Amino acid sequence: METDLKKIIEDRMIQLSASDYKSYMFMLLSGIEYLHSNWILHRDICPGNLLISSDGILKIGDFGLAKKFGNEDQRLTPEVVTRWYRAPELLMGARYYGKAVDLWSVGCVFAEMMLRMPYFAGDTEIDQLGKIFWALGTPSEKDWQNMDLLPGYIQFTPSEGSPLTSLFRSATDDAIELLKALLTLNPHGRPSATEVLKNYNYFKFAPIKTPPEKLILHSPQKIKTEEVQMDDHLFKSEIQEIKIKPDPMHISSPG
């Protein structure tokens, strides 16, 4: 693969537009929809695992933690997903979960693209939960019933959180609506990939998606450096050919 989404996000020389975000999100959600329709949980969606081909196509990689699932009555390990992209139910030790854990991760990736840095970057699992609740607010029993029954439930100091619009100031209303849905604390309130693709306004209205082949994958500086290195390589090759090319004046005639 040419690169991955993590490298693109971290390269500040690459300008990402709202149309670019939408293109990556459409490809990511389409991939998640395919996995879930085939009863597969990825369980480690993060920018480094989202590979980008030379023609701009996003492909989901690293299936080391992927799991075949039938329903949410199946007992699973909560020790999955890179911490910064791990859903709050997993951070509190949930062993019965489903597709919603992947959708939370997708929301974290969406936020990271817009911020150009991780949204929730906790040092420990408790710190991760703290950062999530500080940003989004501490859920009440009304928001998330039976949350206190989770094996690793911890009662945090109540926090109201901050409106997403205060941080994602350049995001459209449709983008904020989608981000809020994906980062719903109660897993039962998160939409499926199919619901997002079919029902949410984010993919229905402007700006339109950037065609994959027009996505910028490398910074202009890197492209220029690679061109210089290529030119230098060709120049050295030509010099080498000149050196080894025989001089016709020094070739002895036969006999």
List the helices and strands and how they pair.
Blueprint: E1 3-4, H1 5-10, H2 18-37, E2 40-41, E3 50-52, E4 58-60, E5 67-68, H3 88-91, H4 100-115, H5 125-136, H6 164-167, H7 173-182, H8 193-199, H9 220-244
Antiparallel strand pairs: 1-3, 2-5, 3-4
Helix pairs in contact: 2-4, 2-8, 4-7
How would you describe what is shown here?
The chain has helices at 5-10, 18-37, 88-91, 100-115, 125-136, 164-167, 173-182, 193-199, 220-244; strands at residues 3-4, 40-41, 50-52, 58-60, 67-68. The chain is mainly α and 255 residues long. It has a single domain (3-214), classed as Transferase(Phosphotransferase), domain 1, CATH 1.10.510.10. The strands form two sheets. A three-stranded antiparallel β-sheet has the order 1-3-4. Strands 2-5 form a two-stranded antiparallel ribbon. α2 packs antiparallel against α4, α2 (18-37) packs across α8 and α4 crosses α7. The longest helix is centred in the last third of the chain and has 25 residues, at 220-244. The N and C termini lie far apart (58 Å). The relative contact order is 0.16.
Order of strands across the main sheet: 1-3-4
Mean of pLDDT: 89
What's the CATH architecture name?
Orthogonal Bundle
Overall 3D shape:
globular
Radius of gyration: 24 Å
CATH H level: which superfamily?
Transferase(Phosphotransferase) domain 1
Order of helices and strands: EHHEEEEHHHHHHH
List segments where confidence is low: pLDDT < 50 over at least 5 consecutive residues.
223-228, 247-255
Please outline the major beta sheet.
3 strands, antiparallel
CATH class: Mainly Alpha
Question: How many domains, as an integer?
Answer: 1
Helix content: 40-55%
Give the end-to-end Cα distance, rounded to a whole number of Å: 58 Å
Oligomer: single chain
**Estimated structural class:** mainly alpha
State the total count of DSSP E strands. 5
CATH domain fold name: Transferase(Phosphotransferase), domain 1
What is the number of helices? Answer: 9
β-strand amount: under 5%
